[in-house]
Design goal:
- This is Restriction endonuclease type IV Mrr domain-containing protein.
- The chain is globular, with a radius of gyration of 28 Å.
- The chain contains 26 helices and 14 strands.
- The chain has helices at about 5-10, 20-30, 35-50, 65-70, 95-100, 105-110, 125-135, 145-155, 160-175, 190-195, 200-210, 215-225, 230-235, 250-260, 275-285, 305, 315-330, 335-350, 395-405, 420-425, 435-445, 450-455, 465-500, 510-520, 525-535, 555-580, and strands spanning about 50-55, 60, 140-145, 175-180, 185, 265, 275, 355, 365-370, 375-380, 410-415, 430-435, 545, 550.
- The strands form five sheets. The protein has a five-stranded mixed beta sheet, with helices on both faces.
- It has about 600 residues and is α+β, with helices and mostly antiparallel strands.
- About 50% of the residues lie in helices and about 10% in strands.
């Protein structure tokens, strides 16, 4: 197992914290770990075997560990090539013309590339060969019907019209084919030049000139330690001026695969990549869209989302609550600020309550759940200007819970000294919540809202503090995957409905799942059925349902409008409801 002997070797020069060992694992051994959990697993095992000892918040190598280390043959990480320079083959001909045209307007006019599918990426010779075969099929030209049939004949896993059409749309988005009449398609000059040259960089340049967040991804990879595809998907929204949400992981992975076959990135693990020396040179050789941190999130001017009045998360009430939470956690002189901020944060997440405060009293009282299943939770907050609360007493917490009839205490602070954290984690009635995690949940609740059941890990005392964030992030990932599935289903059925050769555009559940698999989705049948029924419900109404299966009656844009509109309708209904309860003007409310 990697990074066991390496931990002992690192400790030979002196004790280290788990965070320092995590930094070493990421930066020196290219391990794409987001939390210190894998490091703690290893130090726990080493502690049990007597190789290390844990005290004073750090990991120490024992004498037994030094003896064992002397008998271990250590492996070393491959030398990083960050200082290596690479010579690029210069762009010439039609490819050079594409790059020369990439001014700021040209960069912003590129396609989003949100639904990319390249067939046969493994069974048929790889991504590069698949693209070359498809481009050659369009030289000098090919009808749309013949192209779809060619895809079906060449790639065993692309046997439906919708899949073949998606492959064709992908080649168009990548700048490799273009429509030359109402029925025919032809390879672009740049694509022909790439096929004839056989130069992977010509393919990369053509793709970069055609879709957003391609060459730019190399910069993001270089700026972040061992980034995973999920993080890249979140970051993509900054580079998509014509789109109001991030790319799916599938769209990001297709870009990463293209960058890898062109030699511009190297794969570190199943989900993590690193820019190569060639990739850095490539990134600096082509114009790229530059964005200010956070300034490019959300809808751009003129986008349909603007007409719906969408607001950016950073402008929301949640962002203000999160900012106050993080700021007040460091304000030791005014502890009451954090008490109030914590209660407000929990209320924003659907846990109403009140600030109490004062000597010998609980800081706050909130309620989790509704009705008979609800529970009262005691809120206790700790501030620390240094960012780490040091050994404050937990003696009175049980008494504070008894005062308000609570069974659980939420201990909230910016961070806790290991000895204090262990004491709190070991108490079955205390749930430790760091303000950084709570602020992250608040900010993300605007775009990826969690249900009460999904928020339960936040207040579950059975979870240790180090486990809490991973549990919450797992629910975020599930929510994001569900959104990607909804979009994919509407897109698949829309393609089928638009095909003139497919009468009615109906697809049964088996066919729908087959299409999903060709796009890289692995989803259980009951989840697909549940999502289809949601999209066919009267409130969304973008799918029809019958004995023949499902068919699309609206495009992906309309589906997005319907889903976004539900939030605005809910807000308007809440305002009317509050006016009615207050006995105010209800003249604008709907009748019946």
């Amino acid at each position: 197992m990697r990074f066991v002997g390496e931990v002992m070797d690192a400790l030979a020069s002196g004790p280290r914290t788990h965070d320092q060992l995590l930094d070493l694992a990421r930066e020196y051994f290219d391990l794409p770990w987001e939390t210190s959990g894998p490091v703690r697993d290893r130090t726990t095992w080493l502690t049990v075997t007597g190789m290390v000892d844990l005290f004073d918040g750090r990991v120490h190598l024992t004498d037994a560990g030094r003896d064992a280390l002397a008998r271990i043959v250590m492996g070393r990480p491959e030398p990083d090539d960050t200082v290596t320079t690479a010579q690029l083959t210069p762009a010439v001909g039609a490819v050079a013309q594409l790059i020369e045209q990439l001014d700021e307007a040209g960069l912003r006019a590129r396609a989003d590339g949100a639904n990319l599918y390249i067939p046969g990426t493994s069974a048929n010779g790889g991504t590069m060969d698949a693209l070359q075969v498809l481009v050659e099929a369009a030289m000098p030209s090919i009808t749309e019907a013949d192209f779809r049939q060619f895809v079906k004949d060449t790639f065993p896993k692309a046997q439906t019209t919708a899949t073949a059409r998606t492959a064709k749309d992908t080649l168009k988005a990548l700048g490799l084919i273009r429509q030359t009449s109402s029925k025919t398609w032809s390879a672009t000059p740049a694509a022909i030049f790439w096929v004839e040259s056989g130069e992977p960089l010509d393919l990369a340049r053509t793709v970069h000139a055609s879709i957003a967040f391609f060459g730019e991804m190399l910069g993001v990879l270089d700026e972040t330690a061992c980034p995973a595809s999920g993080m890249l998907a979140e970051r993509s929204s900054r580079y998509l001026p014509n789109r109001d949400k991030p790319l799916s992981r599938s769209a990001v992975n297709t870009r990463l695969n293209l960058l890898e076959v062109c030699g511009l990135v190297t794969r570190l693990s199943q989900t993590a990549y690193r820019t190569t020396a060639l990739g850095r040179a490539f990134k600096h050789s082509v114009p790229c869209l530059t964005v200010d941190d956070g300034s490019s999130h959300g809808a751009s001017e003129g986008h349909p989302a603007d007409a719906l009045g969408s607001t950016l998360p950073q402008d929301s009430l949640g962002a203000d609550i999160a900012a106050e939470l993080e700021s007040s956690a460091l304000a030791s002189a005014t502890p009451e600020r954090l008490e109030k901020a914590a209660v407000a944060a929990l209320a924003y997440l659907g846990m109403p309550g009140e600030h109490v405060g004062g000597n010998q009293a609980v800081d706050g009282r909130v309620r989790f759940g509704v009705g008979a299943d609800s529970r009262v939770l005691a809120v206790e907050t700790k501030t620390a200007a240094s960012g780490q609360v040091v050994d404050q007493t937990l003696f009175n917490l049980a008494g504070h819970r008894a005062q308000i009839g609570a069974e659980v205490t939420l201990l909230i602070g910016p961070g806790f000294r290991p000895s204090m954290l262990k004491e709190a984690d070991d108490d079955p009635a205390i749930a430790v919540i760091e303000t950084g995690l709570l602020a992250e949940v608040i900010r993300r609740q605007e775009r990826t809202p969690l249900t009460p059941a999904q928020l339960a890990p936040l207040v579950d005392p059975a979870l240790r503090a180090a486990q809490r964030g991973d549990a919450i992030r797992g629910h975020w990932r599930n929510q994001e995957v569900r959104g990607e599935l909804e979009y994919a289903l509407v897109d698949i059925l829309n393609v089928e409905a638009e095909d003139p050769l497919e009468e009615g555009g109906w697809l049964d559940l088996t066919s729908v799942r087959r299409e999903l698999r060709t796009l890289g989705y692995r989803v259980a049948g009951d989840e697909v059925m549940e999502t289809l029924d949601f999209l066919a419900s009267r409130r969304i109404g973008v799918l029809d349902r019958s004995d023949q299966g499902y068919r699309c009656i609206a495009g992906v844009h309309t589906a997005g409008q319907r889903i976004r509109a539900l939030g605005h309708q809910w807000t308007a209904a809440a305002e009317i409801h509050h006016r009615m309860r207050a006995g105010g003007d209800t003249s604008q409310e709907p009748k019946g």
